[in-house]
Amino acid sequence: FAFTGDQITYKVDYRNYGKVAASDVVIKVPVDAQYKVISAVGGTLSGNMITYTIPSVPGLESGLSFTKGSFTFVVQVLMQKVVDKVCQTSIITCSNGFGWTSNEYTIVKN
Fold first, then answer.
1. Which end of the chain is more exposed for a tag (fewer CB within 10 A), N or C?
2. Residues 106, 10: contact at Cβ < 8 Å?
3. What pTM does this model have?
């Protein structure tokens, strides 16, 4: 549970499960209006959308450990809602493959 004024840190992990490198990867993270973005290092903020641009994410031909990355962002709760989980999605696109929309849930506790 989070109270008005609390800060929550989200970590977004990404991975390329394809054989070849994904080019011109863009990850967009829409942030709910109940939050104010405090920090999004490496990303750009426009309204309530954080956008991360990654020139290339290696594919499986490079070895499994090279196919992933992550970033974090911090939000502050502007208004309290009575929910026990928040669905924070990420929309991923690239210039040479299929995109993906995640729908991972984050448990919010005090």
1. C
2. yes
3. 0.84
